[in-house]
Amino acid sequence: MPQQLAAPVADIKHLIGGRFTPASDCTTFESRDPHDNSLLAHVARGTAEDGSAAITAARAAFDDGPWPKMTAKQRAAVLHALADEVDEHRDELAMLETRDGGKTINQSLHAEIPRVAHNLRFFADYAAMAANEAYPDGDLLSYVLYPPAGVVSAISPWNAPLMLATWKIAPALAFGNTVVLKPAPQTPLTAHRFGELALAAGLPPGVLNIVHGFGGEAVAGPLTSDPRVDRITFTGSSATGVKILQAAAAHHTPVSAELGGKSANIVFADADLDVAVPMSIRAIFAGNGQVCLSGSRLLVHNDIMDTFLDRFVTEADRLIVGDPKEASTFIGPLIEERHLEKVHRYVELAEEEGGKIVTGGARLVDDAHRNGFYYPPTVITGLTNNARTAREEIFGPVETVLGFDTEEEALRIANDSPYGLAGMLFTQNLDRAHRMAARWRAGTVWINTFFERDLRLPFGGEGASGLGREGGQYSREFFTEPRAVTLRLHP
Ligand code: NAD
Could you name the active-site residues (predicted)? Predict the structure, then answer.
């Protein structure tokens, strides 16, 4: 396990045009550790002027700098050097992520920071090796060019900070764009360190700019409404997604929006419970339920409901909730007090809606937890799919369990949601599994597994879960401006 930081309070500035600069009005906000609310950093509180300055720097680096003119192979070399820096500083980045957002150290160290390096390497290689189409037809030869789109605004959330930021930055850069990243105000630390590592790896100034602060009219305003921005890639809540789409519409700026979810996890009577129970536990409680893909609506066949629920609740009660810096911890604190209060209000609402709290349901306030934002694994039964608790995204360690009798009923409940991000099902009947996958209204369907990600696959959601897909060729289509070229060959 990495050393815990001695934690001198950091002073975090924007990265604009290769320089670390304070906010234009010199104001800051605080970033705090959700484990004990201790102060971690003073962070530049970005103004609209800062957002605009970052776009100017990204624009200049795109219009006049070397980056878009380099070959994909040359860009890949820089991105690989950056991935090497990430690998070299893995312990440090993991501890920063864990302190800033309450993510367990196991997850930061073994999943998310390695995925940061993987994002960089994958898209570097993909861009360098992607095939291009050519259509010779008689005396006509047509082919497709994929020039970079230009300046990309990347706006990311707090729940997997650097992993999701690099899910945007890596393809944007690999295909030759320049970027302005705005990380979530709750978790600025790893983005800042990543900016330092990017300069050390040789990324030219202005190619990656990072501005900190809040949404709305401040720093994020220009990122979504400035006509000099060519693409907006956003991951966050469905409500913010609507605002960003509205702002982007003014200049017809294309938006990729990866939004919220309320995904169904369906366990059939023939499921192997030795797989389905631990996977279902992970699907909702890993990451504290603060995962867009969480299987937060658990649908269990009524024939196995009692057996399944008994095992599920027993395992949920065994999960260690505590200091995320400890290797044994499975559930860390929620991101902030306001969010904990929101999660708890949903649990109260569930009771008002006729639900039964089988386990959990109240903030942890004993000595080990009282200084942080700790909420235990919570399981609710007795609701229908019409309950708000079963329909709205809670984004916490709260599972609503519903029963079903037939495949058709399970599918109907799964699809009866404003969201369409993911779905998972457990069965030993592969015919059924494929039938379900074909009719499921969700961007990703997992069968007898959960959270496996192949970066070549399209990633995104339907309905309130988003717009567009990223990953492999889908990222190339979004971050470039595909151009058809046709020439006539004269004899
Ligand atoms: P959020 O929408 O509050 O904020 C996300 C980012 O948008 C932050 O950087 C925030 O400062 C910025 N922002 C807020 N208002 C803005 C505005 N008007 N204009 C521009 N930027 C603005 O979301 P959050 O609470 O940080 O993240 C949790 C949400 O993200 C959940 O709904 C979760 O499901 C979703 N999420 C989705 C995916 C996915 O891939 N589909 C992945 C992770 C998280």
Answer: 258
What is the number of the ligand 1 atom nearest to the C-alpha of 241? Answer: 2
C-alpha 260 – ligand 1 centre gap (Å): 8
The tally of domains found in the chain comes to 2
Q: Is residue 199 part of a domain?
A: yes
Ligand 1 within 6 A of 259 CB?
yes
Atom of ligand 1 nearest to the CA of 261: 34
**Ligand 1 neighbour 330 (Cβ under 6 A):** no
Pairwise CA distance, residues 31 & 150, whole Å: 32
User: What is the DSSP annotation of 150-218?
Assistant: -EEEEE--SSSHHHHHHHHHHHHHHTT-EEEEE--TT--HHHHHHHHHHHHTTPPTTSEEE--S-STTS
Catalytic positions are 258
- For residue 457, being part of any structural domain is answered with no
Q: Cα(239) to centroid of ligand 1, in Å?
A: 9
Residue 368 and residue 423 share a domain: yes
Nearest CA to ligand 1 atom 21: 215
Quote the domain boundaries for residue 104.
10-259+465-484
The whole-model pTM stands at: 0.96
From the alpha carbon of 220, which atom of ligand 1 is closest?
A: 20
The amino acid occupying position 260 is G
Q: Are 262 and 396 in contact (CB under 8 A)?
A: no
Report whether residue 243 contacts ligand 1, using a CB cutoff of 6 Å.
Answer: yes
Asked if the structure places residue 460 within a domain, the reply is no
Q: Are residues 71 and 173 in the same domain?
A: yes
Judge if the beta carbon of residue 290 lies within 6 A of ligand 1. no
Answer yes or no: do 362 and 476 share one domain: no
Q: How far is the CA of 154 from the centre of ligand 1 (A)?
A: 11
Let me know whether 274 and 252 are in one domain: no
Residues with Cβ < 8 Å from 182, sequence gap 6 or more? 46, 51, 153, 154, 155, 156, 210, 211, 212, 213, 219, 220, 223
Distance (angstroms) between ligand 1 centre and the Cα of 155 equals 8
Both 308 and 405 in one domain: the answer is yes
- pLDDT of the residue at 6: 44
CATH code, domain with 211: 3.40.605.10
Q: Could you tell me if residue 390 is inside a domain?
A: yes
Averaged over successive runs of 10 residues, the pLDDT of the chain (491 residues) comes to 59 97 97 97 97 98 98 98 98 98 98 98 97 95 97 98 98 98 98 98 98 90 97 98 97 98 98 98 97 98 98 98 98 98 98 97 96 98 96 98 98 98 98 98 97 97 97 97 96 80
CA–CA dist 4, 36 (Å, integer): 14
Distance 335 CA to ligand 1 centre (A): 13
Ligand 1 lined by 419 (C-beta under 6 Å): no
Same structural domain for residues 41 and 98? yes
Residues 351 and 312 in one domain: yes
The answer on 405 and 317 residing in a single domain is yes
